[in-house]
Amino acid sequence: MANRKKLDPGASPRAAFGERLRRLREQRGWTQDELATRTGYSASHISGVETGARTPTAKFSASTDRALGTGDALTRQGAATRDSAILDGFPEFVVHEGRATEIRLFEMGVIPGLFQTPGYAAAITGGAVRRGAITEHQAEERLALLARRQQSLTRTPPPQIYAVLDESCIRQRVGGADIMAEQLAHLAAVADMPNTVVQVATFNLGERRSFYTPVTLVTLPDRSQVAYAESTHSGQLERDMRFVGPLLTAYHQLQAEALSQAESVAMISQVRKGTS
Q1: Overall fold of domain 13-81
Q2: 3-state secondary structure of 199
Q3: I need a surface site. Which of 61, 209, 253, 264 has the fewest CB within 10 A?
């Protein structure tokens, strides 16, 4: 019970489903192993759904309804979780991010979420709504989650954050001149924080570039490390050091090739002047 994770049903549709599933299971006095036996799923799968790390599929929701005798209540609630704009794997990553002592990230095309201003974030999600990629409700879900993630910057003690941004992050104008100027000013202010290092990887790195897709590397309080990366439809959390170790090496190589923080802030300020 010491490692029992507190659930926040208001965090996301997945979290609400997980909290309800745990509550229903415990009302019957069942362990996760016992529910697993009754549904045909593993205990680790049950745990993943209960903590919001896994999305309950239609088949899983129906099997839990049958096991728990809840009619189609979980089936209907499970359908709402699959309408979420949050990728599988990301809720589990957010838990690690919130506990991290160090965060190393590389981003392309857009300012990293942890550093986005409300106006910039709203412009990004608004564009996705206009394209029909997400709904208004999903946009609100994304923005609410982003706001909670950004609170990690001010927790005590705060994580040490190393951020390497592809030059496209600061060159691509989002939301118009005023929003972009505000975002770049905020990014420069973030670089001035004592727990952050912000660097720009310029377009002319060529073959010296060690990453071509975004990645985040997280160091946890016990010094273990995890990596997170996304494809179009899913997020992947990797704990095996056989894979995480080479990513850390590649990240350090990228830091060595990127502009220094002073040079990066100078470039950010120069680009900001061009947006006004």
Answers
A1: 434 Repressor (Amino-terminal Domain) (1.10.260)
A2: strand
A3: 253
Q: Which fold has domain 90-275?
A: Endonuclease; Chain A (3.30.870)
Measure the CA–CA gap between 174 and 110, rounded to whole angstroms.
Answer: 8
Q: How are the residues of the chain apportioned to helix, strand and coil, as percentages rounded to the nearest 5?
A: 55, 10, 30
Secondary element (H or E) of residue 140? helix 136-150
Using CB atoms within 10 Å of the CB of residue 71, give its burial: 0 to 12 exposed, 13 to 18 middle, 19+ buried. Answer: exposed
Output the CA–CA distances (angstroms, integers) from residue 6 to 22, 29, 186, in the order listed.
11, 18, 33
Rounded to the nearest 5 degrees, what angle is found at the Cα of 109, between the Cα atoms of 199 and 224?
55
Q: Please state, in angstroms and rounded to a whole number, the distance separating the CA atoms of residues 54 and 48.
A: 5
Annotated domain spans of the chain: 13-81, 90-275
In angstroms, the Cα distances linking 205 to 61, 160, 212, 215, 268 are: 49, 26, 11, 18, 17
pLDDT of residue 272: 94
Question: Which residues, at least 6 apart from 120, have a Cβ–Cβ distance to it below 8 Å?
Answer: 111, 174, 175, 179, 180, 182, 183
* Low-confidence spans in the chain with pLDDT less than 50: 1-2
At residue 90, the pLDDT reads 77
* pTM summary value: 0.72
Pull the structure tokens for residue 98: 């919130």
